[in-house]
Amino acid sequence: MLKGNILLIVAFFIVVNFFGIIHAEGLKPIKLPEPNINGGMLLMKSLKNRQSSRSFSSRELPMEMISDILWAAFGINRPESGKRTAPSAMNMQEIDIYVAMKSGLYLYDSRENILSPVLERDIREFTGKQDFTQEAPLDLIYVADFSRMKGDEASKIFYSAVDVGFISQNVYLFCASKGLATVILGWVDKPALEKIMNLKDSQKVILT
Fold first, then answer.
1. Predicted confidence pLDDT, tens digits, the chain (208 residues)
2. 105 has which bridge partners?
3. Which residues pair with 144 in a beta bridge?
4. How far apart are CA 53 and CA 192, in angstroms?
5. Closest Cα to residue 130, out of 56, 19, 206?
6. Distance of alpha carbon 54 from its chain centroid, rounded?
7. Which long-range contacts (C-beta less than 8 Å, at least 24 apart) are formed by 14-18?
8. Closest C-alpha to 30, from 115, 128, 125
């Protein structure tokens, strides 16, 4: 009986992995342009202009802009150590940024500076319960991987939320600097979004 159960479990994971590949097979990795680290306005002016917006254009953003946003959010600013533009508790770097666009879902790989394909499906409608999530051309999903973290569950929840706060503020300041609209969202059906994204049990959507 035990052998039969093991075979069923193995078969289940093969099927899951197979369909995960099928879902993303139409997407290709996107090599991002090198981020422009010399642009933008003065920090104090960006702070003055920082605000939440709930009205968005559907016009797609150029890849140069997406690259700059993601680098500002949580890119590598010290290649020799792999450390980032935002702090993380004990340098655990547990936050992954998923990028939802009309073409599909991608995972930002900061080390290779690429968008890795995850799902060939437009899931923007699931990134928040407000209608404008489907209008905005770029929805960022902040996901914590608890398997990379130390401590009990309460500390993992706390520190992952704090770390997303740092990252999302970087996005806010970048958008203020470039005249872009942005807003952080907590009103999200997180279990439904995690299921659609095929996340592991250790991965949790924090905010979008």
1. 445 544 444 444 444 444 444 466 789 999 999 999 988 889 999 999 999 999 899 999 999 999 999 999 999 999 999 999 999 999 999 999 999 999 999 999 999 999 999 999 999 999 999 989 989 999 999 999 999 999 999 999 999 999 999 999 999 999 999 999 999 999 999 999 999 999 999 999 999 9
2. 100, 119
3. 95, 204
4. 25
5. 56
6. 19
7. 16/198
8. 115
Give Dmax over CA atoms of the chain in angstroms: 67
Written as six digits, the tokens of 31 are: 């090599």
AA letter at 69: I
Burial of 161 (0-12, 13-18, 19+ CB in 10 A): middle
Where is 164: in which H helix or E strand? helix 153-178
Residues 81/110, Cβ–Cβ less than 8 Å: no
